[in-house]
Design brief:
Blueprint lengths: L7 H11 L2 H8 L6 H11 L18 E3 L2 E3 L3 E3 L12 H12 L3 E3 L7 H7 L4 E5 L4 H13 L4 E5 L9 H6 L9 H8 L2 H10 L14 H9 L9 H10 L3 E7 L2 H9 L4 E4 L13 H12 L4 E4 L6 H9 L4 E4 L1 H33 L16
Parallel strand pairs: 3-10, 4-5, 5-6, 6-7, 7-8, 8-9, 9-10
Antiparallel strand pairs: 1-2
Helix pairs in contact: 1-15, 4-15, 12-13, 14-15
The structure holds flavin mononucleotide.
Flavin mononucleotide (FMN) binds next to helix 15.
Amino acid sequence: MKSAFFGIEDYRRAAQRYLPRMVFDYIEGGADDESGLKHNRAAFESLRFSPSRLTDVRTRDLSTTLAGQRMELPLIVAPMGLTGACRPDGDIMLARAAARAGIPFVLSTASNVSLEDLARRASGRLWFQLYVVHPEHARALTARALAADYEALVLTTDVTVNGHRIRDLRNGFSVPMRLNPRMALDVLTHPAWLTRQVVGGFPTLPNVQTEGSANLEVQAALLQRRMDAGFSWDDLAALRESWPRKLFVKGILSASDAARCRALGIDGVIVSNHGGRQLADFPAPIEVLPSIAKEVGSTTAIIVDSGFRNGRDVVKALASGANAVMLGRALLYGLAARGEAGVAEVLAMFRADMERTLALIGCARAAALDRTHLAQR
Ligand SMILES: Cc1cc2nc3c(=O)[nH]c(=O)nc-3n(C[C@H](O)[C@H](O)[C@H](O)COP(=O)(O)O)c2cc1C
């Protein structure tokens, strides 16, 4: 790790310096008054550990089991659109760093590399995230992900319409970028970023550019994050039929929805409020995790995301019933600050943090974490 980078805040600040303001705001921002964003962090901070003393913690085992598969490190790279605005080839850098760490990488529908190209250029465990913008397009994408040998499909369910993101509206941030004079100044005052973008290419959305009849309609809708708001449980049942590999449903925040997923044979739920980017007033995932784990934890895999910034947060989630954690912005800070090396460093930081936390709370195995490791409030 570079000597100037001791914690995630150092990467966040470096990302902020490197990126034009409109790009940093796109990554960092939340919905509405951003209270959901703050609440995600506050929920972690209000949880405290209850240590067990005099246990043997000479070796620490971070592994867990997720949907029947061993995870040496229970982390996953969350699907994120437009990572190419951080670094050209951002998706590839994230996927390669994930492969080196032995963890899955989830490619977004709104990625800046096609799903086939990514599969060619990065090895490791690849998952594909599906936004249903148009049923015909979704069927085509699913078939392509199967043909390209993606190991799992992640259906995102919390973008029925776009969240109200005031930073993006204020900055006039859109794809494709339409520069106004203020944005031009923003870009010109970040020459390192601009040079890389000019050399490597500004981001496009290739997953939606190669389709047939629905092509133009889908592109326009995806650019405005206008999804198929009619997608229902019946459609999910049909998707389950058409996708023979692991299927995860992202954006679940209630035990009753988790139970419906289980009834449809979904392999796992991703407890998420989309990092506070959709609606400010949802609970923090870490708050609803215990009730969801109680309902489906013995039968259905549970992944959680939103607001994870260090390994202590991850240990709290595992103790609350999660099998694995998805990281979003924390990895984009590493990516923007230092490219693929930065992503690897942030992952290494999470790993070290998790190991240290296990030692300090007196629990040698991540798989043995439960509510008794958290202080009762
Ligand atoms: C810049 C950015 C783009 C995102 N794009 C997508 C996306 O295309 N599909 C999706 O399911 N989630 C997307 N998300 C949400 C993440 O998958 C994840 O739920 C969220 O980032 C977790 O919160 P965190 O950033 O606080 O870790 C995006 C998040 C960010 C920050």
